[in-house]
Specification:
By secondary structure, the protein is of the alpha+beta class. It contains four helices and six strands; from the N terminus they run E-H-E-E-H-E-H-H-E-E. The longest helix has 18 residues.
């Protein structure tokens, strides 16, 4: 069995170990990032939706940075939104703060009914820069 090349952001390893998943795995020149939510350091949800979305992106950026990437390296995005009909506009006005300029990554948006107390989750696949592909 191949050992997974796991990427942990600073200060959150215990949270991932407690929940039994890897925040990201490097494989074949790509970084596969688990869904990130707007969780505080203790894992609890940020109650304000706009701040929760910002915190989800900040948590995502911490993982990307730990792998030597930025959001510019992201090629595919999947977002999960609770009650998108009522929350989409609030969420999507935050996205440009983090998204960058065109051309943008591919995007799949999925409406869900439950995210463990969160309202927004983002998972991505990024291309690793050649200097960190190993």
């Amino acid at each position: 069995m191949t050992t997974r090349d796991v990427v942990f952001p600073s200060g959150r390893q215990a949270l991932y170990e407690r929940n039994r998943y890897s925040p990201a795995i490097r494989s074949n020149g790509f970084l596969f990032v688990s869904g990130q939510v707007g969780s505080k350091e203790d894992g609890s949800p940020e109650p304000d939706l706009e701040n929760q979305v910002r915190l989800a992106f900040n948590n995502l950026n911490a993982i990307l940075g730990a792998a030597g990437c930025t959001f510019d390296d992201v090629i595919d995005v999947t977002v999960f939104i609770v009650d998108p009909e009522s929350t989409f506009e609030t969420i999507w006005k935050i996205v440009p703060e983090f998204w960058g300029n065109a051309p943008h990554p591919t995007l799949t948006g999925i409406g869900v009914t439950w995210l463990y107390g969160f309202q927004f989750e983002i998972k991505v696949i990024a291309r690793l820069p050649e200097t960190v592909q190993g």
